[in-house]
Amino acid sequence: MEESVIVNVDKISASQRELEVTIDAEQAKKIKDRIVKFLHSKVQYPGFRKGKAPLSLFIKKYNNLIEEEFNKAVVQETFKEALEQAKIEYLGDKNDLEINKAEDGSVVYIVTIETHPEFELKDYKNLEIEIPKGPEFTEKFVEEQLNLFLMNYQKFEKTDGPFEPDYFAKVEITLKDSDEKETFTRYITNRFPIDKNLPGNILEILKGKKTGDVVEIDYKKDDKVYKADLKIEQIEKTVVPELTDEFVKENFKDMYSSAEEFMTAYRENLKKRLELDVEKVKKEKLLLELLKNNNFDVPMSEMQRIAVNYLEDLKKKEKREITRDDEQNALYYANISLLRKYLYTKIAEAENIEVTNEDLDKFYEENAKAYNMDTKEYKRAIIKAGLLPQIKQNLLEEKVEKFLLENNTFVEKEEDEKEVEEHSNKEGQSDVNTDGN
What we know:
Blueprint: E1 5-11, E2 16-23, H1 25-42, H2 55-61, H3 63-86, E3 92-101, E4 107-114, E5 128-133, H4 139-150, E6 155-159, E7 168-175, E8 183-188, H5 202-206, E9 214-221, E10 224-239, H6 245-252, H7 259-293, H8 300-318, H9 324-351, H10 357-370, H11 375-384, H12 388-406, E11 409-414, H13 417-424
């Protein structure tokens, strides 16, 4: 029996397919006749009651409307069958490129759709992957991080000077050669952004100066540079606390009883942080390396859905308007998430990696405990909320990631100066358990 709908598929990219769908003349005529009959009964023809105008007159007058509705109906009524024939899962972004009618009465339309990406899996194991060499866990590193941590608790004390670059200064600036001798106040510290109209080396200019001292500087305003007198009104020096029993009791009395106990916990958490940093870098570099070997695109419709959810969550969490940077970050997050999902799923198929009932039971047990819930109650809540498929996917990706970390080699390389500076400037706050868990 001859098919009334015939489909040819052209693979445009990993996730895009162009379908050429042909509807034979008999099927096209049935759709056309039904459209004409429906419109004839619903559309008022001048001088006649609905459905009573001669059909030939009606078709002639409303031919454009008939053709418009026919084109829509042709795609709507045959698209699902076309997908089934082509054995393609439609994800969205259907784009009707053109509809052509042949002399024999058949109709051909072309649509571009998105589907799950198909690609050939290439090198993903036994690779040598470079990662930046992080800081070593030495006494010097511990001391540096502890000093950064203690700076979170620093205080300011008034002093007459001399000023140091890490001090705080309140200054009065008077423009001398402007039309009006304008005077205004500025605050100078290396802890916060400084007025960009001041000289770039203002901290060095003020170094060694005392309260009441006046220095001449160049001050930019309205694209002009003015001579100005800068008078130091007030200086406050930064006082970083020492790690003592008193400091610990004052700030962490419910967690640690002494500086020694605090320091033991700080060391352990700092060491864990370093290990987690290395693990995070390995995972990031691993994925980037695999994506270089396995280049494919992901469905834009899926990307947009994930990005929209990301932005909605961000807006609820931070209670602010979404910026252009937020939108760019959301698209990047969506793209990298989908690349990871499809690539790791493909690797799971190749390596026969699956999520077992034991994996799910462990997940339920651990998370129920974290939320202080009964395990069965937590499991029912997950299933009821429809979250089980996503949880299974997350667990699958975690198992694949673990496999990849074990089956690839990571080689440390020395960080460049910028990377070292960024790492050394990290605040140490996260290295102490401040929530009691």
